[in-house]
Amino acid sequence: MTEAAFQAFQLSSSANEAIQAITMQGVKLIYPNGKTDAEVLGNINLSIQEGEFVCILGPSGCGKTSLLKVAAGYEQPTSGEVSIYERPHYRPHHEVGVVFQHANLFPWLSVQSNVEFGLKMLSCPRAERKEKAASIVKQVGLTSYSSLFPFQLSGGMKQRTAIARALATDPRIILMDEPFASLDAITRESLQYLIRKIWVNSGKTIVFITHDVDEALLLGTRIITMQAAPGRIEVDMPNPLNKRSEPFTFVRKHSRYGELRDLLVRSLRPEGYVLQEAAE
Amino acid sequence: MQWVNPLFIPAPGKVWIAFVQILQDGYKGSSLSHHIGDSLFRLGSAFALALVTAIPLGLISGSSLTVRSLVDPFIEFYRPLPPLAYYTMLVLWLGIGDSSKIALLFLAAFAPLYIAVVAGVRRVSADRIHAAKSLGASKIKLFIYVLFPSALPEIFTGIRTAIGVSYTTLVAAEMVAAMSGIGWMVLDASKFLRSDIIFAGIIIMGLIALLIDSALRWLEKKLVPWSGKE
Prior knowledge:
The structure holds two protein chains of two kinds.
Chain A: H1 2-7, E1 20-31, E2 38-49, E3 53-57, H2 64-72, E4 79-84, E5 87-88, E6 96-99, H3 111-121, H4 126-139, H5 155-168, E7 173-177, H6 185-202, E8 205-210, H7 213-219, E9 222-227, E10 232-238, H8 250-253, H9 257-268, H10 271-279
Parallel strand pairs in A: 3-8, 3-9, 6-7, 7-8
Antiparallel strand pairs in A: 1-2, 1-4, 4-5, 9-10
Chain B: H1 12-25, H2 32-63, H3 65-78, H4 83-94, H5 98-122, H6 126-134, H7 139-173, H8 182-191, H9 195-223
């Protein structure tokens, strides 16, 4: 029944012509855990096209962070294949930038130096490095704070720095693991706006993990929901409300917003819960 | 007025006179600054040696279980040994000159420093290493630009502990076949029951230790202002 409801939202997509940014085929992730192995991810098949903004929604413990770790190359799948731009991908790579839930900055480096870090790792000459980093620091609105250290920054500024640091090496894909989860509502909104702007202007592929349905609807052009034990994809649909050409604030005013939100919330509930409701 | 035998605790005035005397005439043929200089040279070279060996080895050990299981048993074995127990062997191997003294002080400084670096590296979160790798860090760059600065607060704690340990070993190092050094001066004076010189020497040693430690603390504040504020 839900399946059919989601079908109604399907749009004709031009997926076939698009460039495959991330593909996962039969990805399983099993943690050996005594006699009973914990199956964290069970058979994930996923292909993400270049330029998509994919939001992965799921209750905690559903394996969404594990999925991101596999995509980042931090975890090797127990079986299955992961490719980035059709090359096998099992190791962290500077083409795949990562923004963590906690900003995870280098505490001994200033904002500017944190942003320069990736360029330094790639042996970019000093002058060029400084210039590039300064322009990205400006892009995230931290120019007047560029000499401060992470411990002197607010949560929102830390996350801005983390975004700038990930952008500096110009990755084609950015993976974000609940980056705004621990921020207050106002700060979160300004950062959502920032990431949207970056995505619109750069055309980068973004995979964004969240447990917030509204955030997923606001930012994602495609929404994937996951269920736990084993972690698997439940729903995978384009977001009909979100268009690159329109200001994203339109999403919330859309007449179908409530309906779609309801559907997503329902799909996130544990299976037993859904059945019970269906019986009513 | 005599409350205690001046042999046990000399009067402050006598200690001061002894201090002025060794400051002016030196002790047994060498000036006070020469004694202090010799001791600090031994301490300094041993320490420099410990820094350039214990830090890289600690960084590698901290991130590799294989290396750690190879190195740790040796360090765990020799660390609790009293330095005097193996000092004779060092003298036999390296002679009675400065090199055996430096080796003894080096061994004393190495263990606490190494242990601190290993602990510092092991405390680095997996996410920090992941972040660096995603930004393109190679293995060597990861050591230089991430693991080393991450461990810096622990390294400083290790340096301060190591200075303390090697400082206490200093007197032992200067016991055998030495003719100079502040530790030797105190030991030599004790042979003649010159408690005034012993006290003066101990106070000088204490003050030098305080000076070194406050210099280190100043350096720590300068270099790791973020320590404890992550």
